Amino acid sequence: EAGVTQSPTHLIKTRGQQATLRCSPISGHTSVYWYQQALGLGLQFLLWYDEGEERNRGNFPPRFSGRQFPNYSSELNVNALELEDSALYLCASSLRRMTGEEKLFFGSGTQLSVL
Amino acid sequence: DAKTTQPTSMDCAEGRAANLPCNHSTISGNEYVYWYRQIHSQGPQYIIHGLKNNETNEMASLIITEDRKSSTLILPHATLRDTAVYYCIVRDPMEYGNKLVFGAGTILRVKS
């Protein structure tokens, strides 16, 4: 069974440009999470989508946005890129159980570099 | 904010058990304890989770104290490939909009 896949693996942009990152969840998973991990720092929660809707959002400016498609894949868009947006962006998917317990399965991430 | 405290780093000899402690003294009755690990430059990997009973799977064992204020992740026979950052997280699965909050974790170094 395929795991969570993210594309591209690496992305180089210049300041002010827009970046689009993509995530395909594990088949059957309806929830997608996005995290940012800057170099040497911990994972910061960005966004959570479930059943096509944005369910929660971390403490990030509005230029970070995304969506989830009917097939549960997801896209993260970062507008007006700034140097400090350089980070590893991780996507995770999960299947929410009736008890609420869930395991997150992470992809390998997209390394975004803003020059 | 993370609701757990973990040692910054630990060393373990290859082949020995690695015992990683976690303090979660403010844990509530509905919150589960989750453990993930992140090997360098990869996405985090789920290890195990539990509510109040001890749990074991093919990767590790989770020992939760009776008062649930602390727990220990046990890797029974650590290998060099277990070198990673280990995150202990508490989470209420029924809290709407809840998400996994990752703290700094424990850097485990397995040495030969």
Give a description of the structure.
The complex is a heterodimer of chains A (115) and B (112). With 115 residues, chain A is mostly beta strands. Chain A has strands at residues 5-7, 10-13, 19-24, 31-37, 43-50, 53-57, 64-68, 74-78, 87-94, 105-106, 110-114. Chain A has no helices and eleven strands. In chain A, strands 2, 4, 5, 6, 9, 10 and 11 form a seven-stranded mixed sheet that branches. Chain A has a four-stranded antiparallel sheet with strand order 1-3-8-7, with no helix packed on it. Chain B has 112 residues and is mainly β. Chain B is 0% helix and 45% strand. Chain B has strands at residues 9-13, 18-23, 32-38, 45-50, 55-56, 61-64, 70-75, 84-91, 106-111. A five-stranded mixed sheet of chain B has the order 1-9-8-3-4, with no helix packed on it. In chain B, strands 2-7-6-5 form a four-stranded antiparallel sheet, with no helix packed on it. In chain B, a hairpin with a 4-residue loop joins strand 5 (55-56) and strand 6. The termini of chain B are far apart. The interface between A and B is medium-sized, with 24 and 22 residues.
